[in-house]
């Protein structure tokens, strides 16, 4: 009841969630925070090295048949799988990030999944960080904010692959009514970024806030959204308004505060 | 001198132009109008069936080495090659449209090309044509206009591939200073569309205006642009302002007038 009062969205309790790229860092943060909150099916091409909740499917995201099987009975997909390197070569992001994401969306539609949260990236808009704007845009007093209504400006070919993934989400939402949220993740690190690393301070996403943000992607109701995924840093050039308003995101951490 | 007065841009005379997808319909319209205007190198996987200006390279757009060779000495690339079917399957647009376009941009950078005009499509924004807006948006009195500042909403997987191609253009412009224009082409037909085909009336691009528009993409100076490619139709839901202001586009045809 309290939850419903705080977030004016339909709330669900435990959901069946497929987490692709479960062995990566974002997956680690999510599972640290939410292992007991949902029924998990984990998928990664690397087998698990530690204890994990739920089932684990060892498969590459481009293996259509296996991805389709893994989608059965799933309510929500958190799609993180892909080459995470900002310097990844084109051939890899074409296959793992673009083609892999299309495989996931197509399988989600076939299986009747309700929502897909896609792990997009700050690199989808990396070239807004121009020589003219930096380092000013990283500073607390600077009021330059990206809010998701701006056109993409990828900073590298990895970023291009994330823009392509977002546009797949837009298409599968418009065509089939699938709920889709593209989460442009900042810099996820377990500890606070160095105080003199200005960009890192502005882009920080703590593990705790990351888990909470994806929990909101699982529980909230939405149509199609682009949100930024950072903590509530004093320095920021990404707006958190859509994440707060639509998803009910309430970040707890701030790169400028070490007393959390 | 007169040209410089009309268009406040640096004007060049004949340019060395590489036209990919030269054997397709857009290529046909361009060559009908501009065969004698520039020095042409044509590229298509289908060999020529008729007389053609300049050189002809028979190659698939995904053949990197051949595309790189074809780029030598080129000032401007008009990149039309790709699967043109709005119902094209994902595997085809992934290879021919997305990967092929990255091959073209990469080769253009390596060869020191100045400008690339990319044949994007109305399908990159096809899902703005919602049930609520149509058919009103196709009508003369309706003032709904897309102008290129809106976020993409692809209408099919072909449209997704065009969004990906546009974002490649954005990246190669931002990263390397390449001039890039994405031309969202409407419905190119040699004759006027049927008077009772409302969407076709609104989307029409005549062969003459198509050739002129790509001539402006070759001659004008620009940084990064998204323009719509239609004739000056009474019915329209695409703004021509950027094409007119930046490129000096002056369309002659109008789907509502048969007396041109």
Automatic annotation (TrEMBL), chains A, B:
Coiled coil: none annotated. The keyword Cytoplasm does not apply. It is an enzyme of class 1 (oxidoreductase). This is NAD-dependent glucose-6-phosphate dehydrogenase. It catalyses: D-glucose 6-phosphate + NAD(+) = 6-phospho-D-glucono-1,5-lactone + NADH + H(+). Its EC number is 1.1.1.388. Catalyzes the NAD-dependent oxidation of glucose 6-phosphate to 6-phosphogluconolactone. It comes from the Archaea. SUPFAM superfamilies: NAD(P)-binding Rossmann-fold domains. GO terms for biological process: glucose metabolic process; pentose-phosphate shunt, oxidative branch. Belongs to the NAD(P)-dependent epimerase/dehydratase family.
């Amino acid at each position: 009841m309290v939850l419903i009062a705080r977030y004016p969205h339909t709330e669900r309790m435990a959901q069946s969630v497929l987490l692709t790229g479960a062995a990566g860092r974002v997956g680690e943060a999510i599972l640290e925070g939410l292992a007991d909150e949902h029924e998990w099916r984990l998928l990664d091409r690397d087998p698990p090295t530690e204890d994990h909740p739920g089932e684990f499917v060892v498969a590459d995201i481009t293996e259509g048949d296996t991805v389709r099987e893994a989608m059965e009975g799933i309510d929500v997909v958190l799609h993180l799988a892909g080459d995470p390197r900002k310097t990844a070569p084109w051939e890899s992001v074409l296959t793992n990030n673009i083609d892999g994401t299309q495989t996931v969306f197509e399988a989600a539609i076939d299986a009747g999944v309700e929502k897909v949260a896609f792990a997009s990236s700050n690199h989808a808009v990396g070239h807004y960080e121009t020589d003219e704007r930096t380092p000013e845009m990283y500073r607390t007093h600077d009021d330059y904010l990206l809010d998701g209504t701006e056109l993409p400006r990828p900073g590298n070919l990895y970023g291009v692959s994330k823009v392509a993934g977002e546009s797949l989400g837009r298409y599968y939402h418009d065509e089939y009514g699938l709920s889709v949220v593209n989460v442009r993740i900042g810099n996820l690190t377990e500890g606070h970024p160095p105080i003199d690393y200005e960009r890192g301070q502005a882009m920080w996403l703590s593990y705790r806030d990351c888990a909470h943000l994806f929990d909101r992607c699982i529980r909230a109701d939405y149509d199609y959204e682009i949100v930024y995924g950072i903590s509530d840093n004093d320095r920021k050039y990404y707006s958190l308004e859509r994440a707060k308003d639509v998803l009910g995101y309430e970040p707890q951490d701030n790169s400028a505060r070490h007393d959390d």
